[in-house]
Amino acid sequence: MALAFRHVSSGPLRDFDAAAPDGAVIGVIGENGSGKGHLMRLAAGLEKPSAGSVEASGAAKLLGPDDALGLAPAAVLLIDQTFARHDAIVRERAAIALDRMRRAGATVLLVSHEEDLLRRLSDEVWWLREGQLAGRGDPDEILAAYRKHVAERIRVWGQSLIPPLAPRMRWGDGRAEVLRVETIGEDGRPTMVWRSGERAVVKVAVRFREAVADPVIGMMIRTRIGLNVYGTNTELEKLKLGPCAPDETVEITFAFRCDLCPQEYTLTVASHDPDGVWHDWLEDAVAFSVSDNRYTAGVANLRAQVTRTR
Question: 93, 174, 247, 278: which has the highest count of C-beta atoms within 10 A?
Fold first, then answer.
């Protein structure tokens, strides 16, 4: 093996054991703090392990984030986020040079957060998690597993936040006030991040300041660039709310399957009369995101079933 880590412990790395062969580009991915940078410094000989050993068949050259993508011949080449700051022409030249080095027998470790780059250039991907090897193998398989892990982490993070009620614009005659808007996941917990495909809930609480004979409460989902994605209201859904008395509070629950593609969205909510006279309209009242463990294009995640007929 051209480069081998034998039960290495150092910094965040714990009993790390993996080897890279001659003539291979190994993509390295993982969250910040997982040990990627430490792995590269160990491979370059800039740091020594506190336990275990690092074995290399030749001199190693390390390129960092601010270095030029000059890919001179080397037995072991270590590229740590170097592609990120270069333009398309430099990156393409470097990709061609990497292929040439691979065919000449060089071993390359390529650290990047860019999945497309790793998929294109890597023969194998190592996934580092909390200083250990969480997975290694086919780039598509490992990147899919890593993407699923990231989506789960984002979902957990989203549950730790309460979306602030911060409308971009607000208007109405004041006969009612939207008190709160909640986005809730299928586990019943508030979240700012829904998983694509899960059962999602939007709760809208409205307090009436004056008597309103026949109020309508509605919601609209928009993309971050203002494209209307989905909207409905209590009138369309055949739910009659009135008459409502002064100081009465009504809470409406909209439940639906969140078949949206991963990106950022906003919720607009309103209370109004059937003829469209607004009591309280909150434009882009709260923001939320949708995550998924795979890429889908567009807005609607239609979950196509693909078959082949011979």
Answer: 278
pTM: predicted TM-score of the whole model, two decimal places:
0.75
CB 293 within 8 A of CB 151: yes
Token match 């911060």: residue? 166
Element (H, E) at 137: strand 132-137
- Write the CATH number for 115: 3.40.50.300
Q: Is residue 137 part of a domain?
A: yes
pLDDT per position as a tens digit, 198-236: 999 999 999 999 999 999 999 999 998 999 999 999 999
d(CA 44, CA 19): 15
Residues in the chain: 310
Domain total for the chain? 2
pLDDT at 110 (0 to 100): 95
Give per-residue pLDDT as tens, 255-310: 999 999 999 999 999 999 999 899 999 999 999 999 988 778 889 999 889 999 98
* Residue that finishes a domain, picked among 111, 144, 177: 144
Indicate whether 261 belongs to any domain.
Answer: yes
Contact 289, 258 (CB under 8 A): no
123-154 b/e with 16+ CB inside 10 Å = b? ebbbbbeebbbbbbeebeebbebbbebebeeb
